[in-house]
Amino acid sequence: MPILGADMTAGTLIAWRKQPGERLARGDIIAEVETDKGLIDVEVFVGGVLERIVVPPGATVPTGTVLAVIREDTPAAPPPAVMPAPPAGPVSGGRVRVSPLARKLADRLGIDPTTLRGTGTGGAVTREDVERAAAPPPAPPAPGRARMDVARMRQSIAAAMARSKREIPHYYLAHTVDLHRTLTWLADENARRPVTERLLYGVALIKAVALALREVPELNGLWRGDRLEPAGGVHVGVAISLRGGGLVSPALHDADRQPLGDLMRAFRDLVQRARSGGLRSSELADPTITVTSLGEQGVETVFPIVYPPQVAIVGFGRIVERPWVVDGAIVARRLVTATLSADHRASDGHRGGLFLAAVERLLQAPERLG
Amino acid sequence: MTDDLRATILKTLGEIAPEADLAALEPAVAFREQLDLDSMDLLNFVVALHDTLGVEIPEADYPKLATLDACVEYLAARRGR
After folding, report:
1. I need a surface site. Which of A28, A336, B11, B65 has the fewest CB within 10 A?
2. What is the complex's ipTM, to 2 decimals?
3. Are residue A70 and residue A30 in the same domain, yes or no?
4. What is the DSSP string of B33-79?
């Protein structure tokens, strides 16, 4: 059972999309699971043959549980590959490292810490791992349930945000960005594009953020144990509000490398699937930073909270038309406030300021966003 | 014709915002004041109207689609061309 969020502890296997004996290619959807993020399509990360199903439909199991066994294609791999591979330390095999605080808490709660999955450095079991193990797993969904359990999602958001405020020393920066060039360029561009290919201005913001992260990579990564793990790619989580309440922040993979048109198509598809069900496991597990925009709700400045284990989140408010000085003259300009909330353990305000300046600079040359 | 258009618009809105009570929609009040729609929803609305009715809708005309009444009037004029 993959870990699809910082505080996900369990999931329910809803249906198998593949059967034993079937061939699997990397990226194939193998199963559907119900989580606090809704109904998720689980992908495989290796090619091979589905050898055996371990968890039957309807079962609720903790994260890290083996769902099925895949026989990998690679010839030099005698033991079968087990899917999926959650991003955390091993449960067994070799000595299990347990932090002193975790051991003390585990003793008090009557939990054997050596049976837990460690998420600390080198797979060490941390206090949070023990706390998660002590928490009761979410109740299985009732038959005939809606695809989204809002109360359960609320619990998940509560756990993640409480952890963020408890553990992450945030710093906050704001920067006013002149959007005149971006919006003028987008209007011209959209006048040329068929309706199905038009760009929303939000996608230009996402691309600018993704490119700016190349200049300040310490904002793009995950905090594990006591250090920053820089991310291998720029996978921008986009906060999407759901009808009926709650939100998810699935990833737009490699957002810095996608042309704007492709990024827009991916964004549209992601929003549609987030709201109707059908997000993929990698989209929930992979974000390396989050972008949130509340401008359409009339908010002028967003002060977001970092979603752990990420180390930064970027917020955008609404576009306002204000007097602005350009070349010594006062002109009316459309402006947006970009904010950065970041983990001070991973970066400093100086670097955060450079990041926001890079976002602004990139938005002054929108034709170069791709 | 306008009744057909009205029905098409409401059906399209229902697909985009399935939770909305479209029977209570005020035809002269902006959609965004009555329904929880964002810019992605509005883009999908325009794309769906384009696909269903075969009408080209330039981005500059989006403000003309703000209410149900305005939508019907605009689309009727575009189809009559």
Report:
1. B11
2. 0.89
3. yes
4. HHS---HHHHHHHHHHHHHHH-----GGGGGGGSSHHHHHHHHHHHH
